[in-house]
């Protein structure tokens, strides 16, 4: 095996294979298994292997979710794209994605128009308007609060108020397992988001807002 990019491609392909075999609910376990291979292979390429793994794991989670959702989204006649795609300068974006980008901009008055934090965006290809934005994270630290913030900001404008804001997580810290008494992160999810979907094989208390990824 040669080079960092070859290592990353190998691990991505291995995770995809294991997800097909074991199911997406086992993703945390799969990632624990491949982490050892990643660390061993990357030692000669990076100084801080743990930090490298964290960044790689976040990107990998986003890609797994994209793979799972893409076919389902397209069956509805919709499209899904990475947030990094619409973050590009407008002059290099294709026309539809440029319009999708404009449809999610948040107005800060004299401080300009800014994009929310987006990992994935679901949009209608016919009018190029965003319908939902998705954030994904292995754990919830800080990110669920950011997701709630963006939902409130989008809801404050008649132009963006109908955009749904979802969060998908492995919930490796178990913040969502108990509905009542709720931890702060679960409370934010229940009140300030349109829904949180868990990729987990652990038991948890389901609600209208907090459900498994199969939903």
Give an overview of the whole structure.
- The chain is α/β, with parallel strands linked by helices.
- 45% of the residues lie in helices and 16% in strands.
- The protein is built from 7 helices and 8 strands; from the N terminus they run H-H-H-E-H-H-E-E-E-E-H-E-H-E-E.
- The chain has a 6-stranded mixed sheet, with helices on both faces. It has a two-stranded antiparallel sheet with strand order 2-3.
- Strand 6, helix 7 and strand 7 form a beta-alpha-beta unit.
- The longest helix is centred in the N-terminal third of the chain and has 27 residues.
Labels describing this entry:
215 residues, alpha/beta, 6-stranded mixed sheet, two-stranded antiparallel ribbon, 8 strands, 45% helix
Oligomer: single chain
Helix count equals 7
Counting DSSP E segments of at least 2 residues, the number of strands comes to 8
Strand content: 15-25%
Structural class, judged by helices and strands? alpha/beta
What is the makeup of the main sheet? 6 strands, mixed
Distance between the termini: 38 Å
> Which regions are unreliable across 5 or more consecutive residues at pLDDT < 50?
none
Which sequence of SSEs, written as H and E, runs from N to C? HHHEHHEEEEHEHEE
* Overall geometric form: globular
Topology:
Layout: H1 4-22, H2 27-42, H3 49-75, E1 79-82, H4 83-86, H5 95-103, E2 106-107, E3 113-114, E4 120-124, E5 129-137, H6 143-155, E6 164-169, H7 184-192, E7 195-198, E8 210-212
Parallel strand pairs: 5-6, 6-7, 7-8
Antiparallel strand pairs: 1-4, 2-3, 4-5
């Amino acid at each position: 095996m040669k080079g960092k990019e070859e290592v990353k491609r190998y691990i991505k392909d291995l995770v995809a294979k294991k997800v097909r075999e074991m199911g997406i609910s086992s993703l945390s376990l799969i990632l624990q298994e491949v982490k050892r291979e990643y660390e061993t292979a990357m030692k000669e390429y990076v100084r801080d292997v743990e930090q490298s793994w964290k960044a790689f794991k976040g990107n990998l989670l986003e890609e797994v979710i994209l793979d799972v959702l893409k076919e389902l989204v397209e069956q509805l006649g919709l499209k899904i794209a990475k947030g990094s795609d619409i973050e590009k300068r407008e002059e290099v974006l294709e026309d539809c994605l440029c319009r999708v980008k404009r449809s999610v901009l948040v107005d800060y008055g004299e401080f300009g128009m800014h994009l929310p934090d987006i990992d994935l965006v679901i949009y209608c290809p016919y009018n190029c308007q965003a319908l939902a934005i998705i954030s994904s994270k292995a754990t919830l630290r800080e990110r669920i609060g950011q997701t709630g913030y963006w939902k409130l900001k989008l809801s404050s404008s008649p132009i963006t108020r109908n955009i749904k804001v979802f969060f998908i997580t492995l919930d490796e810290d178990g913040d969502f397992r108990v509905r009542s008494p709720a931890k702060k992160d679960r409370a934010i999810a229940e009140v300030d988001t349109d829904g949180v979907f868990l990729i987990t094989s652990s038991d948890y208390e389901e609600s209208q807002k907090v459900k498994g990824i199969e939903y």
